[in-house]
Write a structure and sequence with these properties.
The protein has two domains: about 230 residues, Rossmann fold (3-Layer(aba) Sandwich), CATH 3.40.50.620; about 90 residues, Tyrosyl-Transfer RNA Synthetase (Orthogonal Bundle). Helix content is about 50%, strand content about 10%. The chain contains 13 helices and seven strands. It has a three-stranded parallel sheet. Strands 4-7 form a two-stranded parallel ribbon. Helix 2 links the parallel strand 2 and strand 3. Helix 10 crosses helix 11 and helix 10 crosses helix 12. The structure holds adenosine-5'-tetraphosphate. The site of adenosine-5'-tetraphosphate (AQP) has 19 residues, from helix 1. Adenosine-5'-tetraphosphate binds next to helix 1. Belongs to the class-I aminoacyl-tRNA synthetase family. Homodimer. This is Tryptophan--tRNA ligase. Catalyzes the attachment of tryptophan to tRNA(Trp).
Length: about 350
């Protein structure tokens, strides 16, 4: 059975990268798949332990989900802390995964910085919890931005190692399912999840530096468009966005080696739900002084309705909490079904 899972951390404001790389793509999937979308609040304490108001930040991400068009009747929407099976499975995965696998993660290296010995153990083990988030539902597809590709590959490695290490028990208990891994057909308990990375902007870059990803933790607010920015702020940030002095090329290949131009064209294409080729055939040869206002107008038209809806939804805390509670119950029932089998496969005495 095909099932989609994805999540976002309640750390600071969502930005255009989060929206185009992930959230916008969640919406389209809910009509063709069974979907589970989580606010991964337990991930948010790996880098910073104490938050002023984690519960409220969690509501804000849930409000963004709803405002962008996720429908709680179609998709399960909840926050991770309501379903303790995620952390239980993460512990088992900590024992499946190898320290070397975690040490190689570029996000860990970036976030831990030079003082690695002082990073939290949770930051190192973050990908185990992410694998558990996905696999506790035995999800087959995960829509994410390109920056999460390496973590997804690690989730695949964990699933395969668990399937191999426990293959005899899985077979004895009759819990194996036939699945395709690449060209091969194999029998295993956990699916080897496929990342869904795509669209015209799978990696949205900083508006100040086309070689760095747009990120919440960039100290310059001009580097990103926040979902909470008003029309004036969006227009100002796009106007100030770094560019080179050339006009836009007449062929999409001409964007190679021009990271800022490529980024702005990708953003336009993703917002307009067009290909880069279509954008270049419309704007090729034009100067940024003509392209930027068109981009600003499009960004405002797409994002403003989401922002105002998000603010409206946020005011009704009880409604947001009710959505998360209901989603948590539905998610918990699925997760517990998986964990009953996992405990049996590992061989714990829980009789
Ligand atoms: N720049 C980006 N382009 C495309 N997709 C992106 N995502 C994040 N940044 C970009 C995708 O957004 C989803 C949610 O991510 P998250 O909540 O795990 O946050 P993050 O990746 O930690 O976001 P930031 O802004 O990059 O935070 P910091 O600054 O803390 O590193 C994921 O699917 C992610 O791929």
């Amino acid at each position: 059975k095909e099932l989609v899972f994805s999540g976002m951390q309640p750390t600071g404001n969502l930005h255009l990268g989060n929206y185009l790389g992930a959230l916008q793509r969640f919406i389209g999937l809910q009509d063709s798949y069974e979907c589970i979308y989580c606010v991964v609040d337990q991930h948010s304490i790996t880098a910073q332990l104490v938050h002023d108001d984690l519960a409220e930040q969690t509501r804000q991400i849930a409000a963004a989900y709803l405002a962008a068009g996720l429908d709680p009747k179609k998709s399960i929407i909840f926050n991770q802390a309501r379903v303790p099976q995620h952390t239980e499975l993460a512990w088992y995965f900590n024992c499946v995964a190898r320290i070397g696998w975690m040490n190689r993660m570029t996000q860990f290296k970036d976030k831990a910085g030079k003082d690695r010995e002082n990073a939290s153990l949770g930051l190192l083990a973050y990908p185990s919890l992410m694998a558990a988030d996905i696999l506790v539902y035995r999800a087959t597809h995960v829509p994410v931005g390109e920056d999460q590709k390496q973590h997804l590959e690690l989730a695949r490695d964990i699933a395969q190692k668990f399937n191999n290490d426990f293959s005899a028990r899985i077979a004895d208990l009759g819990y194996g399912v036939e699945m395709e891994v690449g060209e091969e057909r194999v029998n295993g308990f956990f699916p080897v999840t496929e990342p869904l990375i795509g669209g015209a902007a799978p990696r949205v870059m900083s508006l100040r530096d086309g070689t760095k990803k747009m990120s919440k933790s960039d100290p310059s607010d001009l580097s990103r468009i926040n979902l909470k920015d008003d029309a004036d702020a969006i227009a100002k940030k796009i106007k100030k966005a770094k560019t080179d002095p050339e006009a836009l090329p007449s062929e999409v290949e001409g964007l190679a080696g021009r990271p800022e131009a490529e980024n702005l064209v990708g953003i336009y294409a993703a917002l307009a739900e067009k290909s880069r080729e279509e954008v270049i055939s419309e704007f090729g040869g034009q100067q940024f002084s003509a392209f930027k206002p068109a981009l600003a107008e499009l960004a405002v038209a797409k994002l403003s309705p989401i922002t105002s809806e998000m603010n409206r939804i946020c005011e009704d805390r009880e409604h947001v909490d009710a959505v998360l509670r209901d989603g948590g119950e539905r998610a918990g029932a699925i997760a517990e079904g998986t964990m009953k089998m996992v405990r049996e496969i590992i061989g714990f005495n829980t009789k």
